[in-house]
Amino acid sequence: MATQSQADPELMDLEEEELWEIINKHRCKIVQRLSPGRLTPYLRQAKVLDAMDEEEILHCVKFSTRAMRLGHLLDLLHTRGKNGAIAFLESLMLVYPEIYTLITGKESNKEPNSLTRLIESSQLSVLLMNTLSSLQEELMQEKQLKGTLVRHLHKMREKQQQLKEEGECMRSIDGENQRLRREMDAQYQMLSKLKDEQYELSMRYSHALQEKDAVQSKNSELQEQFYSVKEELQRVRMELQAAQSSANRIKCDEYQALQKENRTLKEMLEGQNKLVKVDEPNKYSEETLPNSDELMTQLRTAKNIIAAGEASEKLWKEEKETILQECRHLQNNYDILKKKTEAFHDHVAELQNERDQAYRARDMVQAEISQLLNEKDSLRKQVMDHTECNTELKQHIRSLEAQLRIWMMRKDTENQDAAEHTYSCQQFKHQRLVRMDAIGPSDDGDKASPGSLPEDLASQANSGHNSCSSLHDEYISGLTKSCSSELPDLLETERTETDFEYEAEYKKGLEVLANMDIGDRSFDLGCHMSPVRRRYAQRMSSRVTSIAFQGDDLLRQISIIGGNRTGIFIHQVTQRSAADEMSLLPGYQIMAVDFDVMNPAYKVDLEGMTFEDAHCTLNRVNGFCCLSVRCNMDEYRKLLNNMESGMLSSGDSFYVRVNLSMAARVEGGLQVKCGDILHITNTMYNNRCQWFAHRVNPYTTKDGEAGIIPNYRQAQQQLITSIQRMTWQNGMPRMPKKHVRIISTDRCSSHLLWTSLNCGTCRCEEPTASSSLGRSCLTLMPYTVVTQHKIGVPRPVLLVPSLLGRILSDKLCTSKDFMRCDTGMCCLTRNISSCAGG
């Protein structure tokens, strides 16, 4: 080893411990800032390190980070004594002059005379020439890279401008989509108002019909009374006319007979008077006297008869006046009834006019509703078209982003290959291969692998295009954030505590992958980095996974089984369908379905839903959707075994109380009465909209007679029809009444039986962020969900009179085996609420 010179007397005068004490004061900064690959060439020329030491420093497996390698370098130089310290300071003076100034407090002097004799002048000249040539080559590479990056920057700016224009177009489309949604919500609100008005008009019409029936019945009764009074009046008139005609006829006959007799008497009297005057008066006086007495007697009798006839005539006149008064009274009553009847007919005519107006209003409302439905369909079609266009644009943006990332990684890989080739040609032509274990990336981003680049060339290559790469990274991160904020994640999993075990190493692995060219088929992954250490794959049965795909005619892609008790499972998957491409398998339990991933309000939870409701809900899916599934093979196999053995026909199981009496209308149907408790075991019996139920014994609570009953919608229609028939019974022939319990509830609330009244959640049931109906609609309930409660010990019930009950209660309360309960009356409201609640 050459002798030391006096180029720097102050440093040469210091002892070994003092020199290393000065270096160790700044050891932390030296380890953080310096790269051992740039210091080892000078140290080898100064002969304080050999080839084995250099290989151990740069490629030993134990030193995975740059700080560890530089620390080991300082430890080896410390074993070389004072020469190691002087050589290290001189290498700093040549490579890192600012660090040299920081340690020694002196400016670096690169003149040959200022160096010690640890390295010969010829070797130093060769080292400097090699270093100068390598720096010139690196400068040319950096210039070429700078030109390439500038051209790429221009291209990226053009693409950025194009993406901005596409983003503006997408935002305008999104705004138009939101506007159409708002218009659709407004149209739906108007449609609901029209439905409410139509319902009110129908109720008014039903009330008018009821009033019409009542008025018609009253009118018929009044008409019957009128006809009876009219017949009585006609009969009285006929009797009066008959009596008057008979009396007049008798009176006229008697009067004519009396007048005739009077005339004959007068004639006889005149004849006798003439004879008396002619003959001798005394001769016939004795003979005519008796004849005159007889005539006088007859005359008095005739006068009495005439007086009696006049009295009877007066009596008949009085009776005639009485009958005429009664006739006038009946005529007044008839006029009053006639006026009432005319008023009633006028009222009926007004009701008919109102009915015609209601019919015309109903027809107009129905026409408007049909027009609104057509407009709604057209708007829905436009929304679907815009959604497809939006999806295509987002996919195009993603493809452009992927192409940009691939192109950047290819350029970075080419630059790294060129730098590695240059360095291997100059320094490491005969480098020994070393087998190393796969390790994860280091904390500071350095790649500790056999094929990794040396630190001196890596730092030089990174320092040249630092500004351009930072600009590119900012652009890529901004573009990624914008796309990730607009597009939904295709796969989302619930994170558990085990997911954080290798999270740091996984993030470092992503940083390594970001600098690689995945598009270049000739690129060898093992030549540039080590495989990233990852944890073993585990199947978590409790983890819910969200899978988004194109679910056109979803029930043609998959078939389902299950029910509200077991859950909804995928049973079969059609090959080469979108569901098959997303790796959906039989045995996956469907937890929820999202009709529109851009709007979280369209998400429907399938947990606890019946098979009929789940089938109807999934049948509505016809487009891009998101399924939340969970692997639950044990429950799926258990359900399949039970269905194959005949123990179960589906996964449904719940109890309902029937609120109306229904006859068996189909083959195998079950006739039920109002108030029966049924156990529903299948809501899609024979793949039809009908339920299979068992009648529950009210005493043993066991399933009894079984059969088919209508589903909720059909039963609700029968309930409405029964109520309408009961309403019309007053105006129609008598029909046997059906036993009906009228129970209504708020349809906007969550309930097992009407989740799919409109094949899914109702529009009252479709709450969105932009439209929320402030009103709630009521619906009639043909079935009421009840819960089976098992009683361990039955309670005895005693029905006794009140007086005996008090005595018996006092006696039972004295016993320790009985406890007294507070007595009270159960109000009707409480009974109704308890019946409605099941």
Which helices and strands occur, and which strands form pairs?
Blueprint: H1 9-13, H2 16-25, H3 27-33, H4 36-45, H5 51-59, H6 66-79, H7 82-95, H8 97-104, H9 121-278, H10 281-426, H11 455-464, H12 466-486, E1 491-493, H13 503-514, E2 545-551, H14 554-557, E3 558-563, E4 567-573, H15 578-581, E5 588-594, E6 603-605, H16 611-619, E7 623-631, H17 633-645, E8 654-658, E9 677-682, E10 690-696, E11 703-710, H18 712-727, E12 744-746, E13 778-780, E14 783-786, H19 802-813, H20 828-836
Antiparallel strand pairs: 1-2, 2-7, 3-4, 5-6, 5-7, 8-9, 8-14, 9-10, 10-11, 12-13
Helix pairs in contact: 3-6, 4-5, 4-7, 6-7, 7-8, 9-10, 10-12
Commentary on this structure:
Residues 438-465 are annotated as: Disordered. GO terms for molecular function: CARD domain binding. InterPro entries: CARD, DEATH-like_dom_sf, PDZ_sf, SH3-like_dom_sf. This is CARD domain-containing protein. Strand 9 (677-682) and strand 10 form a beta hairpin. The chain is 59% helix and 9% strand. The longest helix is centred in the N-terminal third of the chain and has 158 residues, at 121-278. The protein has 20 helices and 14 strands. It is elongated. It is α+β, with helices and mostly antiparallel strands. Mean pLDDT is 74; it is low at 1-7, 423-539, 747-751, 755-777 and 824-838. The strands form 4 sheets. The chain has a 5-stranded antiparallel beta sheet, with no helix packed on it. The protein has helices at residues 9-13, 16-25, 27-33, 36-45, 51-59, 66-79, 82-95, 97-104, 121-278, 281-426, 455-464, 466-486, 503-514, 554-557, 578-581, 611-619, 633-645, 712-727, 802-813, 828-836; strands at residues 491-493, 545-551, 558-563, 567-573, 588-594, 603-605, 623-631, 654-658, 677-682, 690-696, 703-710, 744-746, 778-780, 783-786.
